[in-house]
Here is the input.
Amino acid sequence: MALLQISEPGMAPEPHQRTLAVGIDLGTTNSLVAAVRSGTPEVILDEAGRPLLPSVVRYFPNAAPLVGNDALHSASSDPVNTIVSVKRLMGRGRADVASMHLPYRFADAPGMVRLETAAGQKSPVEVSAEILRVLRRRAEAALGADEVDGGLAGAVITVPAYFDDAQRQATKDAAALAGLNVLRLINEPTAAALAYGLDNASEGIYAVYDLGGGTFDVSILRMTKGVFEVIATGGDSALGGDDFDRALAGWLLAQAADGGERGPGRRDADQWMSALPPGDRRALQTAARQAKEALSDAPRVQVDLALSDGRGVSQSVSREDFERLTQALLERTLNAVRNALRDARLAPADVQGVVMVGGSTRMPQVQRAVGGLFGRPPLNNLDPDEVVALGAAIQANLLAGNRAAGDDWLLLDVIPLSLGLETMGGLVEKVVPRNSTIPIVRAQEFTTFKEGQTAMAIHVVQGERELVSDCRSLARFELRGIPPMAAGAARIRVVFQVDADGLLSVTAREQSTGVEATVAVKPSYGLSDDDIARMLRESFDAAGEDMQLRALREQQVEADRMIVATRNAVAADGDLLDEDERARIEEQVLCLYKLSRGDDHSTIKAGVEALARMTEPFAARRMDRAIAAALSGRRLDQLDR
Amino acid sequence: MDAHSKSHFALFGLPERFALDPDALEAAYRRVQAAVHPDRFATAGDTERRIAMQWAAQANEAHSVLRDPARRAAYLAERRGAAIQAESNTAMPADFLALQMQWHEALDDARDAGDPAAVAALRAQVAAERDATLERIARALDVEGDAPAAAQGVRKLMFVERLLADL
Here is the structure.
């Protein structure tokens, strides 16, 4: 019967051919790439057998940048050109980074920060792309991607659940610059839960406590019959292990300054830190980090460091000292956990397991405090540094269509922060509330207030506060081409769409005339399309690659994919088409096939789009049939297991 | 067939009425998402990815409306021609207005006196009113076929739920 012949939409066209896909944890301190090999997720090691790539990039005047361990060593000697913890700068402006005590020179420009380096101005997106490029090459070499047609099919990249739209978009842009096809951005805690959940095959409510180098996230998930549903998330995208280091570094400096007398206030320590030469600051923070790590095992450590002005730091630090200094930071994470539980309308006792993620959860006081809050010891079976990348690899494998029989699950994630619009008086009107499951589409109607008005500005913000000034500005959209009418007569329907990556897009249409308004986007802390195009050109020039050739290859891959998908769809559900529709689709497929053998990427692109438009009603009918089949329970035996 | 042309109930294969089995809704939601979610189409062509995104968004919207009794009732009343108009229609029966004032005074008194037991008693009273209102809405929609009465009930319910959130 026809219903049973529907091809599984997620399956690769040819089941015997495995598609190569990887999971990438683009971390503040370290980054990793993992893949599912022989059915098991594993981290891909570098040539020296190391799993972690330090998220560090060093720039030179006339040479390619160094990435990872090679760059890490110069963090103190060349701090201005050695970029560490770049993740904290993604989608951030000058005002956001002012309090971070960073040794970099920032270009004086609005929008996302730009770093002045020996290799010229660099956006955090470009710095992140260097890290991703190294991971991509590592994966291609290890997986033999060159030998498989098409190479690496794509990557799942993880982001903190609490990342806002600008930070997510910056991450996706970085992947594009690094030549990676992003299958999906997924949240780090969700990835971690996936890595644990599949091992334990457990049902129930789980919490993920993720304290990384620069970000803190908490997610509450419900696992039911193969569905991982995020019900609430919270956190602080500017709180991480780095802050614990800084608290200790400030204290060390204060101790050195007043010779062990009663230490000065935190603000003084912060000011002194800022006043240090960049090299000293980096060295002190490194010493503090090493002391923090040592204190996870030892009750007391000795820190000895000579500063460039001749002063010396020589101080014994006990675990109690460190815990006292960082108590307030820890408390901030616990408050975020309580808020997430409140959003989920759950009590700590409802949670069946607490997954610990991020190297910073190795600190004994963190383990103790989280265990105390939930009244149960946290789960630590998987390496907290690797668990996110492993989960991302598992998801990448599923998305790429390499599903084994009985291997099926679905991630349903949420938007972490409410999306809203600026209204009269600088107030925010919420359009999409936080913790809404994505993808989500919400429409809002506007009218003109002037006679003959043909344009309109919309300011989109993200956050929970009532005043625009207290929220994060995402973008300003300008609608143009509204037909001139009397004031208040036009009805402009603006549609906000948040896709499965958590990224927002906006479209607008005048309702009475049906005229589509054009939407010009000015991202507040993002890159414009022109910026991206320029960076792409520069990266191709630097790598000595031919951009036209790459664009052609990409469009050819896309055309092939479209042709195969369309043919499979017609073979499976051709009965949903009438003779005429079928003939036109087949003609268009043939036309695209011919175009794709040519050498003009823009005509191939137009051909792909034409076929996409033509097959849209067919795809919708197929979707309808798939739902009917799903509701009749025929194809979901795994989910109902 | 367009994602938006189906009713929220039809999308999940559920009967179009107020009474609803939450487990059946959750099961249908999971099944529909498993079939339409963009993750199922990550390597498909543009068309299928776009359509998957629209249907998955529609499933999320339908799920969020149907699982919330007040929104479900409002949706049904609107489909039967009785819009809620929460902002413009603030007319309430006199007895309900009197009850509202009584509650607010009781809340102020309890807070001034710092009496948690009195607040708890008030909460129980308001919660009982919410349950009674839900029952009246269910009857109006599923038995009497009286959409305007259901819409009036929904407006009352919205007030009661706001007060409960404050308590």
Observations:
- The CA atoms of residues 25 and 389 of chain A lie 5 Å apart.
- The longest strand of chain A covers residues 227-236.
- Chain A touches chain B through 56 residues (CB under 8 Å).
- Chain A has five domains: 21-189+388-402, 198-220+234-239+334-382, 241-328, 415-529, 543-631.
